[in-house]
Amino acid sequence: MPTAIIPARGGSVEIPKKNIRKLGRKPLVVWSIEFALNMGFRTIINTDDSGIAEVCEGFECEVYERPEDVHQGHAINPVLDCIDFLSIAEDEPIFLMLPTAPFRREADYHQAIQKLEHSPAVIGVTLSKPLHSLRYMVGEELQPIIDCNVNSQRQDVAPLYEVTGSLFLSTTRSLFFNKTFHVPGAVAQVMPWSVDINSWDDLELARKLAG
C-alpha cells in the first residue's frame, strides 16, 4: 500500500495559518487528507502545530506532532522524519502531498504508480511560461533571465514545465539514500489542473475554482 505523507506546518509568512484556512467548505489541509484516504493510501500528517493536529484527528489518518525544527526548510524534511521514526517498508511507494496544492486527479496518481515501476521517482509538473517570456525586476527595470531571443514565438521553443506541489513519488529506499525526490532519472507526471497556494492571490483563485 502506498503511503501519503502530508507535511502541514503552522508557520506561514504570507498567509498565517494557511493550512487550516477554509477552501470551499473545509480547511485546506483536509483536501489532501480526503484525497489520500479515498485513494486507499496510508495517510500520515506530520505537523508542528496543535491546531492543525486537532483538525486532522477527525479523520482516519495518522497524526504526529513533531518538533518545529522538523518543519524548517524544505518539505522533504518531514518526509525523511517519518521514514526515520515510523515503520515503513523499504520498497514502499511514498507520496509527498503538499496541502498547498489541493486539486488532484486520481488518474494522475494511478499513472505515477505505474511509472515508478521503471523510474526512481515521479514528480508532478505543470506547463510554464517559456524562459524568454520571464523577467527579473531590478527596481522597475526588466531584465531577461537568460541570454536569448526575447522575440521568439511560443510555438518555436521547447515547452517548459515547473514543479508543482501536487505530487512527488519515490520509494522509501531511494529517499533514505538520496534524501530527495529530485534524483537523476526522475520522470514527469503532467498535472494541468494543479494550483499551488503561496499567496493571497493564489488562495483567491483556488476559492473560485473550488466553488
Describe this entry's structure for a reader:
The chain is α/β, with parallel strands linked by helices. The protein has one domain: Spore Coat Polysaccharide Biosynthesis Protein SpsA, Chain A. Helices cover 27% and strands 26% of the residues. It is built from 6 helices and 11 strands. The protein has helices at 28-38, 50-56, 76-85, 106-116, 172-178, 200-210, and strands spanning 3-8, 22-23, 26-27, 42-47, 62-65, 93-96, 121-127, 135-138, 141-144, 161-171, 187-190. A hairpin with a 2-residue loop joins strand 2 (22-23) and strand 3. The longest helix has 11 residues, at 28-38. The radius of gyration is 18 Å and the shape is globular. The mean pLDDT is 89.
Topology:
Elements: E1 3-8, E2 22-23, E3 26-27, H1 28-38, E4 42-47, H2 50-56, E5 62-65, H3 76-85, E6 93-96, H4 106-116, E7 121-127, E8 135-138, E9 141-144, E10 161-171, H5 172-178, E11 187-190, H6 200-210
Parallel strand pairs: 1-4, 1-6, 4-5, 7-11
Antiparallel strand pairs: 2-3, 6-10, 7-10, 8-9
Briefly, what CATH class? Alpha Beta
Numbering strands along the chain, what is their spatial order in the largest sheet? 5-4-1-6-10-7-11
Biggest sheet layout: 7 strands, mixed
Helix and strand run: EEEHEHEHEHEEEEHEH
Strand content: 25-35%
How much is the radius of gyration in Å?
18 Å
CATH superfamily: Spore Coat Polysaccharide Biosynthesis Protein SpsA, Chain A
- What are the segments in which pLDDT stays under 50 over at least 5 consecutive residues? none
- Average pLDDT, rounded to a whole number, is 89
CATH topology: Spore Coat Polysaccharide Biosynthesis Protein SpsA, Chain A
User: Would you count the extended β strands for me?
Assistant: 11
Overall morphology: globular
Q: From the helix content, strand content and strand pairing, which structural class follows?
A: alpha/beta
